Amino acid sequence: MTTTAFLTDSTLCIGCKACEVACKEWNELGDDGHTWTGLSYDNTGAVGHSTWRHVKFVEAAPLLGFGGNAPDLASWTFSSDVCKHCEVAGCLEACPTGAIVRTEFGGVFVQPDVCNGCAYCVVSCPFGVVQKNSDDGRAFKCTFCYDRQKEGLQPACAKACPTESIKFGDIDELKLAAQVRVEELQSRGMQDAQLYDPTETSVKGLHAMFITRGDPKQYNLPPNPEVPTVYLESAWKSSALAAGVLVLGGLFAFLGSARR
Amino acid sequence: MSDPIMNLSNEYTPKGWKPRKEARLEEIKEQAKEFGTVEAKGVVPAGAPFPKASPETGYYGIPLLKQPQWKPEIPIYFFVGGASGAASVIGALAHWTGKDRQVARDARLVAAAGAIISSGLLISDLGRPSRFLNMLRMFKPQSPMSMGAWILAGFGTFSGAAATAQILSDRLGFGPFRILGNVAEGFSALFGLPFSNYTGVLIGATVIPVWNHNVRTLPFHFGMSGINAGVSILELMGNDSSPGLNRLGIISSAAETYEGIELEMKRDPVVNEPLKHGASGWITRMGGVLSGPVPLALRLAAEFTGKRRSRQLRQIAACSSIAGSLLTRIGWVRAGGVSAKDWRLPLEETKRPRVQKSQSREDYPHMRKIS
Questions:
Q1: Is A106 left (phi over 0), alpha (psi -120 to 50) or beta?
Q2: Which of A92, A51, A118 is nearest to A203 (CA)?
């Protein structure tokens, strides 16, 4: 089995939401409700338990060469967000039941028949992806279309994408393709084009990479995502200290006092 | 009466008609003709909401992280677990040092009751309570939630056994039960040690900024809070003249006082904001005062006063500590929710270097010049 990945290229995205619709329909996800964010033309806001693909509409000040046809119109870039399927995944490390597993395709998958809804993965995801559905009781996120991949099909979102903004394939090939694409964009004058794949952090890289223009922070992509296991050592040390104080303090308190 | 508007042409002066206000309407009309838009105080101005996404504001300030989705049972579980875990250790120490048999006996009951209540609270928090045994499907040292489940399982087993043996040997006076009870008490204390403070690890090792920022002190803080509550519950069960308990209470409330002072002195306002401001801040602070300086002063005073006054002081200290411990847990959990909503924190650049330095549009002044 090859390790597969997504490469989402925001420079090709037209914001059509085909991936959102395809994802919802294929995976039979629930209704998000009808709300207006009032923040931009994006009314979905973020990925969640019933939204596994989400097209971000990054609207910014007018700058020539950054999209838009006239300098007095806002520039738009779109980027389809998804679970990052981290190389070292916080949710997978945190899951106490073993419901969250790494599939043979390298994706991170929540087994719905094992999850007991403890919600610890929710506070362990550095990208804020996995969420508990309080009606259902279990946690949900992008499955990387594990069902389709097992049948040799590409994920629903990648299949539905009309501009090949969502590329799906072998991870090594896509990493190479990403480099080539970024270089090409930069040579064409889009010098702020870059690949978002934080391999230097404890996340150790993503199976869903993004080509963005401008600072990834405006796409809510964190500069330093950390897997919470990096905090374990100092946490258990502090726990040991507390245990030590309890034992020694207790011995001191009782031995030093008179028998009752 | 006829419609005043219909009567305007008939030189009828409608009620409330003022020449100046009428003139203002003309003014507005002129302004609209001249500028194509009219703005006034109190009216939301027209205009699309963009541009707003930027490296400074993130993605329109929409939170990047998800908020913790635990029910209100969880902070109560933190309190009960901390108190009962500490109580089992206190009881074992009181027993082994031979100083206080009554404390040892009561502690077994507190530990067992705490384990039962803790399990109930944890199970009711689950989205699928019927699957609570899935927690024991695997042993996963890198997951504090998995460790907690195993610690609770061990603690529940042995504290339950110790309490049962205690009750049986009291009723029957049967030797073997006493030995079994003592062995179980030992194991219960062994599990009670981590059980009294692991919840600090549980929330410290997460992506929630205010929790992981304080990960070095949180388990210790929760541990001391647990000792405070454990001592206090044992005291309120009639052990308010046990000198050992008061001394341990002095140690733990002194540690809590230190924790509180350290937290207040810290100069990192952004991350720790939820601990100082808003509802979560005030609950945390109230918890800190009630579990730190208040019981410390009362317990110190109790060391130097007469027997009767001393017991009264210790009872007040115990009530204050219990309330303080509960509020501390509620405050910290709420602070986590507030912290998760703060989009600024996960977007902060920290010391860790990145391969690709992020580039903002401002890095390309020549492009701005064109526009």
A1: left
A2: A92
pLDDT-above-90 percentage for chain B: 72
Calculate the CA dihedral of residues A44, A50, A55, A57 and round it to 10 degrees.
20
- Residue A51 in tokens: 């939204």
The reply to whether B219 and B109 lie within a common domain is no
Quote ipTM for the complex.
Answer: 0.93
- The pLDDT value recorded for residue A36 is 86
Q: Are strands A166-170 and A100-102 parallel, antiparallel or unpaired?
A: unpaired
Q: In a mutagenesis test of the A interface, which of B207, B334, B350, B351 is the best target, namely the one with the most A β-carbons within 10 Å? A: B207
Interface test with B, best of A57, A116, A131 (most B CBs within 10 A): A116
Nearest to A82 by CA among A154, A15, A6, A194: A6
Number of domains in chain B: 2
pTM of the model: 0.87
What is the distance between the alpha carbons of residues A160 and A154, in angstroms, rounded to a whole number? 10
Q: CB-based contact (8 Å) between B89 and chain A?
A: yes
Residues 6+ apart with CB under 8 A from A30: A50, A133
Segments forming the whole domain that contains residue B170: 71-196
Residues B110 and B154 in one domain: yes
